[in-house]
Write a structure and sequence with these properties.
Layout: E1 2-7, H1 27-34, E2 40-46, E3 67-70, E4 73-76, E5 100-106, H2 129-135, E6 140-146, H3 151-161, E7 165-174, H4 182-193, E8 196-198
Parallel strand pairs: 1-2, 1-6, 2-5, 6-7, 7-8
Antiparallel strand pairs: 3-4
The structure holds pyrazine-2-carboxylic acid and zinc ion.
Zinc ion binds near residues 48, 82 and 107.
Length: about 200
């Protein structure tokens, strides 16, 4: 069984959003075009409480891009984004969601960030995604969505660790590129870890 994972295609990560990924909206038609090719489609949703420790606004004198220690780990600070229940946290309405089986929310613990759709950054909390996919007989995953250099990369890395044959659909992801070249470096890292980087046109 093959599953398509749609990572964090939410208004705050799209042009006009608070943590906009340049050209992030370009992934939407690609995802819509390929999703019928999969046995299962699931999505992730960044879903933070307002007091989340990854928000610069929750640290006196800090701004987005600065670092703090959060539960003992280095944490880069972001603008407020994907606050539970706000319009920016919604998944973009142009995505065709009728066949989606489940949306896995992450980032709900205020003291730990959670880039991966599987586990939080300390690997303490589990969203249930790995168990869900295994229970449904999934052996191979195709990862799409935002952002290539954060949540998509971490999701790909955990998918590999969980034993899934893992593909990154290159034309269905875009990166934030806080530092120029971050997305290219993320692609190299994912490939080295064992992911296959593919174009959507090669999906049978
Ligand atoms: C993401 C930064 C903070 C992402 C989520 O979806 O890539 N990036 N939270
Ligand atoms: Zn976030």
């Amino acid at each position: 069984m093959k599953a398509l994972l749609v990572v964090d295609v939410q208004y705050d990560f799209l042009p006009g959003g608070s943590l906009a990924v340049p050209d992030g909206d370009k992934v939407i038609p690609v995802i819509n075009r390929i999703q019928d090719k999969f046995d299962i489609v699931v999505a992730t949703q960044d879903w933070h409480p307002k007091n989340h420790g990854s928000f610069a606004s929750n640290h006196q004198g800090k701004k987005a891009g600065d670092f703090v220690k959060l539960s003992g780990e280095d944490q880069i600070l972001w603008p407020d984004h994907c606050v539970q229940g706000t319009p920016g946290a919604q998944i973009h309405h142009d995505l065709k969601r009728k066949s989606w089986k489940k949306v896995f929310q992450k980032g709900t613990n205020p003291v730990v960030d959670s880039y991966s759709g599987f586990y939080d950054n300390n690997r303490g909390e589990d969203t249930g995604l790995a168990t869900y996919l295994k229970e449904h007989g999934v052996e191979e995953v195709f990862v799409t969505g935002l952002a290539a250099d954060y949540c998509v990369k971490f999701t790909v890395m955990d998918a590999i660790k969980e034993g899934f044959e893992t593909n990154l659909v290159e034309d269905a992801t875009k990166g934030v590129n806080l530092s120029s070249g971050d997305t290219e470096r993320a692609f190299t890292e994912m490939e080295k870890a064992g992911a296959k980087i593919i174009d959507s046109s090669s999906i049978p």
